[in-house]
Amino acid sequence: MDKKIVLTGDRPTGKLHLGHYVGSLRNRVRLQNENKYDMFVMIADMQALTDNAKNPKKVRDSVFQLALDYLSVGLDPEKTTIYIQSQIPALAELNMYLLNLVTLSRLERNPTVKAEIQQKKFNRSIPAGFLTYPVSQTADITAFKGSLIPVGDDQEPMMEQAREIVRSFNSIYGNILVEPEGIFPPKGQGRLPGLDGNAKMSKSLGNTIYLSDNEETLYKKVMSIYTDPEHININDPGHVEGNIVFTYLDVFGTDKSEIQNMKDHYKHGGLGDMAIKKYLFEVLNKELAPIRLKREEFAKDPQMIYKMLEAGCDKANITANATLREVKEAMGINYFG
Ligand code: TRP
User: Fold this and answer.
1) Which CATH class is domain 4-191+302-331?
2) Residues with Cβ within 8 Å of residue 290, at least 6 apart in sequence
3) Distance between terminal CA atoms of the chain?
4) pTM score, whole prediction
5) pLDDT tens sequence across 113-155
6) Which residues have any ligand 1 atom within 6 Å of their CB?
């Protein structure tokens, strides 16, 4: 009965890539299949709109793409409630009450938000909804009494802020909300570098492999991967550290001894970039082909996808409404019983 609640979400601003897969998707599927938790996965369209108010179509299209990505990697709507943030009115309502428990200066100190403001070049023109999204995210989590939140390392400040808000709420109104705790990827495994050698795989850097990329695109992208700029002739000794082909092989390859042999060979010289890239292509394609195939199948039936999401929203609304009722009662704003 009292299974712990695992809750997480993504902003629908594009399709998911290999970095998401390594950093969080695989982990979620694993948690789902342990059958030990109640899992909620939310498509955070309201949060996406906080810095995409002028791009509603991008957000709407990405909701659908994200749902396809979820299903194709193995999230199962029978086991995991998959839903859309904007369709759960209790989240917006709870956000209004939580906003009163946080100050502007505290919001401005959130290091992830600070970094995003710089990166998005908002200067002083920060959308108010954007600055306050950590509070909305606290509502996302607390409305479900989520206690375990699998997220990327950049979300730790959100968890900390959420805990502060929960403590503040509970000390004023009574012990209603649950303090969440982040579950982070194991050290060194949370972040997949980009094809170009950049520390982060990211859409804005154009260095990604999408889960939806077809075989041809995958092949082209693998052939473009950053290797070792000093490895010019096949017989030159090559570097393995910082060589993205080997970084990916370490993450995705299953034949560890074969990979070790290739590393040794590459270091001594005599193993060409083309050969290691072809090997990596096979490894990645083996992992991605079944995902791609499922994605294509699901994409044929958009109605089924929206039906699945609608059912998820119905379920999510039951839980979120129940928490909101408790919250309003605790706050004494339940005037009519
Ligand atoms: N901010 C999260 C991200 O960018 C997405 C998100 C929204 C989320 N609401 C959430 C994550 C609630 C966990 C819990 O990845």
Assistant:
1) alpha beta
2) none
3) 28
4) 0.93
5) 999 999 889 988 999 999 999 999 999 999 999 999 998 888 9
6) 7-11, 42, 44, 47, 137, 140-141, 149, 151, 155
